[in-house]
Amino acid sequence: MKKAGASYPIRAASKLTGISIDTLRAWERRYEAVVPSRTARGRVYDEDQIHRLTLLRDALAAGYAIGQASQLSDEQLEALVKTAADAAQTMSQAAGVPPRVLLETVVGAIEAFDAYAADRELGRLAATLTIPDLIHEVVLPLMELVGERWHNGSFNVAQEHMTSGILRNLLGGLIRQYQPARPATTLLFATPPGELHEFGILAAAMLAVSAGYEVLYLGPNLPAREIVSAATLVSAAVVILGIVALAPSEGLTGTLRAVAAGLPQSTEIWLGGRGAQGSVGGIRSGRMHILDDFHALTASLERLKQARS
Known about the structure:
With 309 residues, the chain is α/β, with parallel strands linked by helices.
């Protein structure tokens, strides 16, 4: 039921919501976030649409992408904004508490090989945090903790693999929850042969989901021909490969050459991880980019979105 009240031209709507006129127009054109009436004065927004725009503004402030938020009903947006506000309050109450302390329950469950308890706790955190906060406040610190314990011998390979499985489950849930209604851009995530560590591409895939992209996650240790075949089949805009090994090898260089040669010229290749910079060797390709960190990934995701809008 529509709320009774006045109608507002676009300038008034911009002032009421704090959203720029250019952004309002872009949201209408690209996402049909709202569909205002048109009169001799131009676009006219009713009270319901002003309310929806305010909800969308608050959802974006909480870290959600407009491509995802615009597909939700007003009721879903209200619930999302409330959950984000509650999570922000919880996080503020925990201000000053290191992520390591907040993750003790998860790490303790992994130490005890209690996959169910670790998965349940991560699911609880995922339900109360935005994806960017989940990545930076939970997933990355967890990866760091598990990596440290693996290196110092207090965690074994089985516990690292169990953590990867739990994070894959988390990624699958996020993909189902935030799958774009009209996916236009697909990104493929994998690691080349011999690269068994997938923490980096798991976190990267989650960030891509939060930015509104369709994600095809293939996991670690994938031959070049399989990467090329899958990317070609789904018309992937970008192939993102995680490379941890610091010492480049002929096999890795050969894999990257084969991937670059086999992919369509329109497909970009992004390399991330500690070993990415040294892996390219003499490969020259204008579509092969090194991602120094997750901030660089976020910037590249935004660049890709702007280029395709």
